[in-house]
Amino acid sequence: MKRIDQLSFEKRRRYMAMLFVLPWFIGFLLFFIAPLVTSLRFAFSELNITGGGYELIGKGFDNFMFIFTVHQNFTRLLLEAALDMIINVPLIVLFSLFLATLLNQKFRGRAIARAVFFLPVILASSVMSSIENSSYMAELMAGESGSGVMQVLQSLDLEQMMLESGFPPTIVGYLTGAVDRIYSIISMSGVQILILLAGLQSIPQSLYEASKIEGATGYEAFWKITFPMVSSLIPIVVVYSIIDSFKDNEVTTLIHNVAFSNVNFGVSSAMSWAYFLMVAVILAVSMGLVSRKVFYNN
After folding, report:
1. 74-103 vs 169-180: helix axis angle to the nearest 10?
2. CA 248 – CA 165 distance, rounded (Å)
3. For residue range 133-142, what is the model confidence (pLDDT) as tens digits?
């Protein structure tokens, strides 16, 4: 067997990548594979709890037929979750890249500004969520201050202005929806900003100095240097954003309620696997589209 120092650079990188993934793989085998197989068995069975445990009665695809053809909410919630992801993820990626580029500039208070944009990730705890969803917050938003903000936004009439300017209705609806989602977009962009900021800081300054000598503008430097050099991180940001958008929503709440409130583990397992397959398909399609525009600097 060859010594490590005798291997080629590519093989050493490959071995280091395998070594990096090895702890996750061991943890998956020890802690996740058994529950995964059990939930798959539950998805094709009816579970009856007995005095000594439980028994499984095979039902084939009946549970999947039930959740898609009989259950009144699952299909609708599944489509709504996918639609929210399609709307939010591009906005999060663009917003994160924009903020990371700004935060990478040299100015006073840069560290404080970076901390401010990462605060939503720290504050995104169950305590903060309960405060946001409390009746006090609802009353506050519905009060005089909230109505004043709404009147200001209505007075702008952004949607009507864009339509009169000749923008297509589809684009207008998307942009006005983005304005309505600005709080959730900011709160979900903290980690992505850090990832892209780390990529921006790794770009050699000599490239920008050479481009300035050649007479390139800031716009040209961004599209010819900044974006290509940081594009290898875009797939990571997209995957993280997609997973983050699917981790806690009405679909997961429904699955939890069906399993533990209705004590129907067969149907809840079928919902979980249908949800998992939808997320996997979306990830595969997204990676296939994004990877075409990725530039890897070797």
Report:
1. 80
2. 38
3. 554 444 544 5
